[in-house]
Design brief:
Number of strands: 6
Radius of gyration: 20 Å
Structural class: alpha+beta
Distance between the termini: 20 Å
Helix content: 40-55%
């Protein structure tokens, strides 16, 4: 299925499941910038729109209804809000009250367990590779080729984040130093992630020298 067909079916399904203002907001709010994010950033990485919700309704501390451009909410997984911010509408035209509310809203959502990502329209349009890299960094611990990755323990998730932050092959010594664990524990964590298909060992003379993070999988957790 190509992007246009998948996008059309996705929007149609969400519209059919909604009514009233929630449906109206979807039809009014999912415009060029939002579609471009899905086309340039999300779809090239995952080729799936599963668990991604457009114009997702949330409530602030006053129980006032608000809408995120996107929410990624896999079962038993994280709650990640994604906003596509245009300079004209989100920054230049903001007064002090709106600016304060935007910051407080994000702080409130963070306190409620959300993780927020903001991408500028210019980056989505002109530097989509940067957006994809940042999105990978956030979502890597929650995406996997096989179901066993949903059993990742907290420390394994942190090892994955460390691998992405380093931007180079990961050595057992890196895990030892970063987490202050012994070599055996570091090896167990790396072997477990390797068995789950999230990293791959690189050998030299029949000995594992380091591990590389696998390319981003296409199936969502």
């Amino acid at each position: 299925m190509d992007f246009e067909e998948a996008h059309s079916l996705w929007i149609g399904r969400h519209a059919a499941e909604r009514s009233g203002e929630r449906r109206g907001r979807l039809l009014r709010g999912h415009n060029f910038a939002e579609k471009l994010f899905v086309q340039n950033v999300w779809w090239p990485l995952f080729e799936s729109l599963e668990h991604l919700h457009p114009e997702y309704e949330i409530y602030d501390w006053n129980r006032k209804s608000q809408f995120l451009d996107f929410a990624f909410v896999p079962p038993n997984g994280p709650q990640i809000g994604i906003e596509c911010d245009g300079f004209q509408s989100h920054i230049k035209d903001m007064d002090r009250e709106k600016f304060s509310y935007a910051l407080n809203r994000d702080n409130f959502l963070t306190g409620m367990g959300w993780r927020m990502l903001h991408f500028s329209f210019d980056d989505i349009q002109q530097r989509a590779d940067v957006c994809r890299m940042l999105l990978q960094l956030m979502l890597t611990p929650y995406l996997a080729r096989n179901p066993s990755a949903s059993d990742l323990i907290s420390r394994e998730k942190e090892v994955l984040r460390l691998a992405w932050r380093l931007g180079r092959p990961l050595r057992p010594k890196d895990v030892v130093n970063h987490f202050d664990v012994n070599f055996r524990t570091a090896q167990k964590l790396l072997i477990s992630l390797s068995e789950k298909g999230l990293i791959k060992p690189v050998c030299s003379k029949e000995r594992v020298r380091y591990y590389e993070v696998n390319s981003m999988p296409n199936q969502l957790w």
